[in-house]
Sequence to fold (1066 residues):
Amino acid sequence: MPWVVMAVALPFAGMLLALPLGRHAHRLAWAVLPSGLAVSVLLVVQVWRGGETVAYAIGGFAPPLGIALRADGLSALLVLTTALVVCATGLFALAEFRPPSAEREARASVLFWPLLFALWGALNAAFLGGDLFNLYVALELLTLAAVPLVSLEGKPETFAAALRYLLFALLGSVLYLVGVALLYGAYGTLDIALLAGAARSEPAAWAAGALMTAGLLAKTALFPLHLWLPPAHAGAPAAASAVLSGLVVKASFYLLVRLWFDALPAVAHPEAATLLAALGTAAILFGSVLALRQERLKLAVAYSTMAQLGYLFLMFPLTGGPTEAQPWSAGAWNGGILHAISHAFAKSAMFLAAGLILEAVGHDRIAGLGGIGRALPMTVFAFGLAGLSLMGLPPSGGFIAKWLLVTTALASGQWWWAVPMLAGGLLAAGYVFRVLNPALAGADEPVALRRPVPRRRQAIPLVLALLSVLLGLLPLGPYRLLWVGRPTAAEEGLG
Amino acid sequence: MVSTVAVPESPTLLAAAVALPLALLLAGAAPRLGARMLGLLWAAPLPALAASLLAVGGEARSEPLLLGMALALDPVGATLLGPVALLWSAAGAYAGAYLRGKPHGERFAAFWLLTQAGSLGVFLAADLASFYLAFALASLAAYGLVVHEETPRARRAARIYLILAVLGETCLLLGFMVAATAADSLLIRDAAAALPGSPWRDLALALLVAGFGLKAGLVPLHVWLPLAHPAAPTPASAVLSGAIIKAGVIGLIRFLPPEAAPAGWGLALVWIGFGTAFYGVAAGVTQEHPKTVLAYSSLSQMGVIAAVLGMGLATAGGVGGAALPAAFYAAHHALAKGAMFLAVGVAAATGARRLLPVLVVTAVLAIGLGGLPLTGGALAKLAVKEPLGGGAAGTLASLSAAATTLLMLHFLRRLAVGGGSAAAPDAAPPAGIVLPWLMAAAAAVLVPWGIYLTAGGGGLAGALSPAALWEAGWPVLAGSGLALGLWWRAGRLPSVPEGDLVVIGEGATRALARWRPPLRAPRLAASGQRLAAEAVRALAGMEGVLRAWPTAGLSLLVVAILFGMVLVAGR
Fold:
């Protein structure tokens, strides 16, 4: 079976079915979520067993005429991560977005499901797309599915946040599209593999590279282009925040990786990589400090996303550039991608936990959460575990990722990149502790729960947080999977 | 002192040593078992104790986990692991009785087991990642033990403890990473051996000494210790001072270069060590609270150990030969200091008329720490004689033994004054806390003899010769004389607040805050706080600007142009 195609087609089919089903769309989740997860697992197995990139030319037309879907180790892993986070979020949302009794407005419950499926399909299309225009379409779909999720609850402030998000994402898309047009004009193809051979270091490629990079950074909300992220991620319903913060921003980051490492390796210079990492450093420090200052839990978590995204961009200079394989490249590559994956689990767990707290207490002011640990022990524990990964403490995916990135920085003589990573860990300890300390204290008057939260729902963020921790204890297999289909075969460098 | 005993290999037992506390923790999550967990704390460290008693060797390796986990037990590790596990068990039994019926018992048990898993794990970890994991677990989970009573005093102590612990962790992480990069291996022995060849070896050694020194309480990184150890409930104080600070000792032993140490580091460590040893006594004799006196004595003793390791580096070029004596010294301290902390709780529950036996037993331990002949303390002093040598370091060590005797007599006096305050003059302490205390006290005398005569390979004749007895005895006599002199002039000593430097830091912060009126900065032990607060406020202001639409649009443009320029320039 062409699992590559199924991975994209199945969620979209779910979206199409969900629209006419209306009030009953939530029942569809029981079919789409498990089958989508199964397809993703099968895709990973296929890539792992085959040991090479799985490609599928739609309709049998080979590029440059036709459209290709490609799955190498990196994309297969991201597809699996997406499936796991989406399934957990979907299960979580079943209690929230179930059609209510007649009098409550049903719009949110009806719309959530098609939007979630569309988001899933768009994410998979972005991870598996083989040419730059397809990826543009996937990015647009992603934006169009993500924006309504932000304002699903229909509060005025979430509309403002959604509008901000939409406008900035569209600006980013325009920049990206202009870059695509420039590349097509210059080389007559948009297929990533073909472009890699054709593109030379010349003005058209420079301009395209700069425009597309800026556009993708705007969508990733890298400092200083983050204006839309905190209000959007903090204002959305918990289930939406989880996928937005955990997955959606990673898609544009992934595209940037593809662009730099696979499509335009001849153009990507070390100086530009340094610029990316400098912005990432600023994001780490700036986002962490602001997360420390927030009074509302969800905003603090959103600013922490901004900071954690910064780490990903340190990968660019640390790999030593796409063209020159260095002995340490593998460490940086593995570390960067592992950070993206473990952050996806940790951050979605955090947002779901924050959502449960908000739901149970009725507010998410950090100062008013004293003693919540006794009322919602599982939820607070999940928050703490996810925090472990953000701080980069063992055993967690975040620790291994940070270890790989920092040892790479030392081994390649670029020690200065180690400084923001360690400082970011300290600051993360600060903002996680700021929440956990009052939560675990025996407050004089423990917070009163507006309504009890069933253990079943509390278990979902816990499972996601455990996944982010288990990534740190996992056998080294996934790191080898990451290398399936990489042009530069650097197998060494773990540790 | 090299072990010649053949070692049976049992990787499972090594893994169980760390796994049982964690398994009990998980079991405690079940609602019905949670309440009973407090009564089972004594059993958690038994596999570790068994591993150490059987002198189990071999390595338990789990290649795929956490970058490749490896557990191993060598003679140095076993020397520390056994006594520390014994103390955990005794203090666990004590905690079961001490906290019964008090609030938050389950939370205490959870943090206890987590801390214990880390505290035992540091002696077994053979690779950097496992060591870091165990160390971080012991450090961070202990926060829950320090803050347990949630009094303002405990909260302040715990906050300062946590800030310093997290800073220490970061120092260590960077140090480990430099070592791992130099060795291209994750095994601790490779990393320690390769460190002298690293281009950043001085930075890495500084980070490691700072990180481990902070844990062990070396001056000036000791400030958290006299605050945190007395603030915790008594059984937690015992393991904090007896067991957990030994993570710093094993860290120094494992990570200081085994040979070819760069010059200068040995002497620096000797200076820091003896500085800490005498500073601890000087600050300790001004204290009123017996637990605080003990805490200052702990850092003083850790100073002696640092000096022993430093002499190893300075004279033999590596920590190798000094490792086992230092571990032995630390093992005795673990049991003796743990038992003395437990004694504070026993004395508080004892009526005035029954206090004498408690004081007598405690006196043997206390003066033993100063080297009272025939006690474990005398053996510990005997063991470190060789690495310290006969020169100035040896003399300083004897003087520090005299100073310790003085401090311990001060402790006994404070204990006698503070104890016996139980309601009824003939109140008897509950057996639940007396038996574990007596066990720990007996172990503090007997276990060092056991190690000395078996694994240590020492003979009775050596330990009981008149020369050795005099060697151990004169500092005790001198210290007793000093104590008499001190009591004669009692009341004239300046009083040093608990946590000395941190209080000065806090005072300075407050003074600064008063000097410039409108400031709402939280009280933290850093005078740079005010600047930081202003920087943060400036950042927040900047965030407002950045998030305005015109700035955001401009930023997008600037980013695009910047990348264009860089790509053009990079051609």
User: Anything to note?
Assistant: Residues 11-343+351-488 of chain B form one domain. The beta strands of chain B are 59-62, 69-72. Residues 152-183 of chain B form the longest helix (32 residues). Residues 195 and 561 of chain B are 44 Å apart (CA to CA).
